[in-house]
Amino acid sequence: MSGAAALGLTGLGFAAWPRLSGLLAPSFAFEPIPDLPGFRRIAGSPSAPAALVGIEDSQRTDSAWSGLSTCELLYTEARAPGDIPLAYFSDYRCTFCRRLSPRLADLAQTRGVSLTWHELPLLGPASLQAARAALAARRQGAYAAFHTRLMDSSFVPNPAFLRRLAQDEGIDPDTLIADMDHPGVSRQLAITADLARRFGFFGTPALVIGRTASLGAIPDARIDALIALERSEPAPACA
Questions:
Q1: Residue 15 burial (CB < 10 Å; 0-12/13-18/19+)?
Q2: Residue 20 — φ and ψ, nearest 5°?
Q3: Can you give the pLDDT at residue 153?
Q4: β pairing state of 84-90 and 113-119
C-alpha cells in the first residue's frame, strides 16, 4: 500500500470523526460516485481514485465475476421484505472497526437491516492472515464467531492461535488452516478489493447503506439516520 494511502488510513478515525460528527443535522448532502450509477456518498467524505486504492496486485479483478453487478457482489446476504442492505468493510487491525463491528451486529439483529461483511485487510500481513482465517471459518459455519474473537484479540493470528480458536469454536483446526489458502477465500478477498476500488475506499471502516457510501468512523445516530433515509426513498440502487 502506498505511503499516501497509509497516511490516509491513519487519519480515518481521528480526522474523519469530527467531520462526520458535524453532519448530525437531519438533512444530508450527497455527491454521486463516478462510474457507479445510482450510488452516492456523503458530500465531503474521504475517498480515493480507484488507481490509488492500496490493493495488492494478487487481488485484482477476475473475469470470473466480471459479469456480476456491483449490487450482486456488494450485498450477498438474504433480505426480508423491507430490509435495508448494509455492506461493512473492515480490518482486524483497525481500532475503529473494533468499536463498530459489535454495533453493526446488534443493529442487524434488531433494525430490519441485512448486513454483508467484507474483509478488507489493508494494514499488513497480520490483517491478511486474520481475514483469511475468518473467511476459512465461514466455510465451516463459524464466521461470526471468528470475526468477534479476532476483533477482540490483540494477538497476531499465527497458526497456533488460530488452531486454538478453531478448537474453542468447535470446528476442525486442520481444515481451517488448509482453507485459508482455498481458492474461494482468495476469490472473496479479490471481490472485496475490487469493490473497495469502485467506491474509492482506501481504508476502514467503510460502509455502504443502501445506495449511500461512507468512509471513516461514523456515529450511531448517523448510521440510524442513513438507514431511515434509505428506507424512506422509493428507488434504492440495489432494490
A1: middle
A2: -75, -35
A3: 86
A4: parallel
Query: Is-contact 50 198, C-beta < 8 A?
Result: yes
Tell me: the pLDDT tens digits for 135-156? 999 999 999 999 999 999 888 8
- How many C-beta neighbours within 10 Å does residue 138 have? 19
- The C-alpha cell of 134 is what? 475468518
DSSP 19-38: HHHTT-SS---EEEPTT-TT
Q: What is the pTM of this model?
A: 0.83
Q: Which helix (H) or strand (E) holds 123?
A: none
**Backbone phi, then psi, for 207, in 5-degree steps?**
-130, 145
Cis peptide before 205 (omega within 30 of 0): yes
d(Cα 201, Cα 53) in Å, to the nearest integer? 7
Under 8 Å between Cβ of 182 and 134? no
Q: HSE, CB side, 13 Å, CA atoms: give it for residue 47.
A: 20
Distance (Å, whole) CA 133 – CA 239: 32
pLDDT in tens, 175-195: 999 999 999 999 999 999 999
Q: Write out residues in the chain with pLDDT < 50, as ranges.
A: 1-11, 14-26, 50-61, 63
- CA separation for the pair 59, 131 (Å, rounded): 13
